[in-house]
Design brief:
14 strands, two-stranded antiparallel sheet, about 10% strand, alpha/beta
C-alpha cells in the first residue's frame, strides 16, 4: 500500500506524490435523480521550466523531446498552464505559441529555419545573438566617467585638506564603480528575435491572446520582488519583452526597463515557481530543473573519472557548485511545502543525476556543445522513465497519460530518429519483446511483495 503524501527522490528524477487520487469522490445516487452519464473533466496540466543559461535550455529541450515521444496522452502544446523562469521562459513561450518540441529543437539546437503551416517562416536563433556586446550600455556608462572623475578628484582634494595624513583615495574614487556596465552582452536582440517569431501567422506576442495561461517570471531589481508577467497587471507586456526580462542574468545582460521598472533574471527569487501553476489549478505539474550540485564522491564510487576534489577545477568549478547547491536546496524546500499545501495535486520533477558529469562540467554558456547536451538529456530522461515506470505509471494514469514502453525500450532512438514522429505500428517481434519485459517486471514485483510480507 503506497503511503499518502510521500516524496520520492532518485538521482535524476524526483516525483512529489501529493495524493493517492486527484479525482473527486463519486457522489451517492439519489432515488429521484435522473439517470445521466457523467463525463469526467479533463485534467488540468501544467509545465514549469527552471533556468540555467544556454546549458539549461539545451537540457530542457532534450527532456521535453523524450517526454513528447514517450508519454501517450500528453500534448506539450496543449498544457493549461506554462511557467518559465530565465532560460525556461524561452521554451514555455514557444510551446504556448504552438511551436512543437521538434520545431524548438530545430530552431535552438540545429539552427534550422522552420515553415509555419498556413504561411510564414521562423528563422533559427543563431548563437551569436546571445553574444553581441552591449555597446549602448558601454557608451551610456562611459558618458558617466568624466563627471565622476571630476567629483572624485574634488572629494580627494577636500579630504586631504581636512585630514592631510589620512589616505582617502579609495573612498574618494569608489563612486567610479558606477560607471561599470550592468551587463556584458546585449539582450534586446533576443527580444527582437522572439517578437518576429511570435508575430508569424497563428502565433501572438500578446499574453491576452493566447489560448492558454503563460507566465514568465522575473525579479524587480529595485524591490527584489518576484513578478509574474502574464498575470493580472502584467499581461499587457509583450511576451518577447517578458522573456527578455526573465532571462536578464545580472552581470551578463543589462536589466530590462519596463514601465519605469528594471527587471532581472527570475531565478534570483525562486528557482522553479511550480507553485504558480498549482495556484492556477493544475492537477499535475511536470517540472524540469537543469542544474543540480555534483556529488564527486558518489561519481567516483560509480567508476567516474572526474576530479578527485572539485577545488582542482579552479574558481569557476567552485562557483558553479556553490550556485547549483544554493538554488537546488531552495527548490527542494519549496517542493516539500507543496506536500501539505496542495494535497490533491501531483508534481513530477526531472533533473540530472547527482553524478552527471556531462551536465556539470559543460560550460553553462557553451553553444558549441548544444546538440551533444541535448542528446544526453534526451537519452537520460528515456532511461529514467523506464527505470521509474512503476512509480510514475499510476501517477500519470490519474491524468489520462501512459508510458509508451515500446518507444522507451527502442535503443535505436536518437534525437535525429524520425524527428520524434511516433510510429504507432509496432512490429510483432518488438511487441513480443515488450510483453516479455512486462512479464519479467510483474514477476519481480511479486517476489518483492512476498519478501516484504515475510519480514
Amino acid at each position: 500500500m503506497r503511503r499518502r503524501n510521500e516524496l520520492l527522490h532518485t538521482p535524476s528524477l524526483m516525483e512529489a506524490r501529493l495524493t493517492e487520487s486527484a479525482r473527486p469522490a463519486a457522489k451517492p445516487l439519489r432515488a429521484n435523480a435522473s439517470a445521466r452519464k457523467s463525463v469526467p473533466a479533463k485534467p488540468k496540466l501544467g509545465l514549469a521550466l527552471a533556468g540555467g543559461g544556454p546549458l539549461g535550455a539545451m537540457y530542457e529541450i532534450g527532456v521535453l523531446m523524450a517526454l513528447d515521444e514517450s508519454l501517450n496522452g500528453l500534448d506539450l502544446n496543449d498544457m493549461d498552464v506554462y511557467v518559465g523562469v530565465s532560460a525556461g521562459s524561452f521554451i514555455t513561450a514557444g510551446l504556448a505559441n504552438k511551436l512543437s518540441p521538434a520545431e524548438i529543437f530545430q530552431l535552438f539546437i540545429e539552427n534550422k529555419t522552420t515553415d509555419k503551416p498556413g504561411g510564414g517562416k521562423t528563422t533559427a536563433l543563431k548563437p551569436e545573438v546571445f553574444l553581441r556586446p552591449a555597446f549602448r550600455e558601454y557608451l551610456r556608462r562611459a558618458a558617466m566617467v568624466p563627471p565622476l572623475v571630476v567629483k572624485a578628484v574634488f572629494d580627494f582634494a577636500a579630504q586631504k585638506l581636512r585630514h592631510p595624513l589620512k589616505a582617502a583615495a579609495i573612498e574618494s574614487f569608489a563612486p567610479l564603480a558606477r560607471a561599470l556596465p550592468t551587463g556584458v552582452f546585449e539582450n534586446d536582440a533576443i527580444r527582437r528575435f522572439l517578437h518576429r517569431a511570435f508575430s508569424q501567422p497563428g502565433r501572438t506576442d500578446d499574453f491576452r491572446k493566447l489560448g492558454t495561461k503563460l507566465y514568465s517570471i522575473a525579479t524587480d531589481l529595485d524591490t527584489g520582488e518576484s513578478v509574474r508577467f502574464g498575470g493580472p497587471g502584467f499581461d499587457h507586456i509583450p511576451i518577447s519583452q517578458a522573456v527578455q526580462a526573465s532571462a536578464a542574468l545580472p552581470g551578463l545582460f543589462p536589466p530590462v526597463e519596463i514601465d519605469g521598472h528594471h527587471f532581472v533574471d527570475g531565478a534570483l527569487k525562486k528557482t522553479l515557481n511550480a507553485s504558480v501553476a498549482l495556484e492556477a489549478g493544475a492537477q499535475l505539474v511536470i517540472c524540469v530543473n537543469p542544474l543540480v550540485p555534483f556529488d564527486a564522491r558518489y561519481a567516483r564510487r560509480k567508476g567516474g573519472k572526474q576530479l578527485e576534489k572539485l577545488t582542482e577545477g579552479g574558481l569557476l568549478t567552485v562557483l558553479s557548485q556553490t550556485f547549483r547547491a544554493i538554488i537546488h536546496s531552495r527548490m527542494h524546500v519549496g517542493l516539500q511545502k507543496y506536500v501539505t499545501q496542495y494535497k490533491d495535486r501531483d508534481v513530477v520533477l526531472f533533473e540530472p543525476a547527482k553524478d552527471d558529469a556531462e551536465i556539470f562540467f559543460t560550460n553553462i554558456f557553451s553553444y558549441a556543445s548544444r546538440k551533444r547536451v541535448c542528446e544526453h538529456a534526451y537519452q537520460r530522461t528515456r532511461l529514467d522513465l523506464l527505470k521509474r515506470r512503476h512509480e510514475l505509471e499510476p501517477i500519470f494514469a490519474r491524468h489520462g497519460i501512459s508510458l509508451d514502453l515500446a518507444a522507451l525500450r527502442d535503443q535505436r532512438r536518437t534525437l535525429d530518429y524520425g524527428l520524434f514522429k511516433r510510429n504507432r505500428h509496432v512490429p510483432k517481434d518488438e511487441r513480443i519483446h515488450a510483453t516479455s519485459h512486462d512479464l519479467s517486471d510483474a514477476i519481480t514485483e511479486l517476489e518483492q511483495f512476498v519478501a516484504r510480507s515475510r519480514r
